Amino acid sequence: MLHSERVERCEETGPVVVHHVAKLTRLGQPGPDQPTRAAVMASKRRKTLVVCRPCHDSIHATHVTNAT
Q1: Which listed residue, 25, 51, 56, 60, has the most CB atoms within 10 A of its CB?
Q2: Rounded CA gap, 66 and 8, in Å?
Q3: pTM score, two decimals?
Q4: Domain boundaries, the chain
């Protein structure tokens, strides 16, 4: 995704940044309350997600509330 400059969250193209979590457990428990981006990261077993700046800002404005 970095080479294509395509955002994994909104599918837009352009400048990208990488969202990172310290541990996969910080993504919360699977279920209806888990944000889509957390579910994608958990399913790929990745602690990173390639996103645009607006998506990154949105991620940090909405925290996962059911993290263990």
Answers
A1: 51
A2: 23
A3: 0.68
A4: 1-68
